[in-house]
């Protein structure tokens, strides 16, 4: 097998859930049937890796130092909503019930997968929440076991620093991932949030 072909299959195996067989199939497909797509993929990967960084304030993906939401002067700086992913943030934005700022964990605590506090940027969150301006941290992690454990851990960490912490109300079904819950339910859960 050509060296470059092997190098490509090795690289494709870095993707989650891709084993040697499917990596070979993908490499074959790209080189045999979609060279234009392969070139596009290569450019997109290069560009994204060069340009996309974490927002210095909220940790979400951005191509600038500070993301558009954090830079928006009309947002309420006293509230900080903690979500697992940018998709969850978009879901909460769609409810139009929240005008504060965000912190995006880019994951959740998951000891079984070896994901600990460092992996979800909790030191950065602590520094952000303790900036002296934030008055309330709203925990909006998913209502899954891992999301709940993450909320509990963060709540204890922030309360130890004397910060006020609230959690979305239990309108969201148990096991519910915000991304898949309807906007009306999340809007109610946001309005009915309670202290932890
Ligand atoms: Zn930001």
Question: Could you explain how this protein is built, in words?
Answer:
The chain is α/β, with parallel strands linked by helices and about 200 residues long. Helix content is about 45%, strand content about 15%. The chain has 8 helices and 7 strands, in the order αααββαβαβαβαβαβ. It has helices at about 5-10, 20-35, 35-50, 70, 85-95, 120-130, 145-160, 185-190; strands spanning about 55, 60, 75-85, 100-105, 135-140, 165, 195. The strands form 2 sheets. A 5-stranded mixed beta sheet has the order 4-3-5-6-7. Strands 1-2 form a two-stranded antiparallel sheet. α7 links the parallel β5 (about 135-140) and β6. α1 (about 5-10) crosses α2. The relative contact order is 0.11.
Determine the mean pLDDT: 94
Structural class: alpha/beta
Poorly predicted runs of 5 or more residues: none
Number of strands: 7
Helix content: 40-55%
Indicate the radius of gyration in whole angstroms. 20 Å
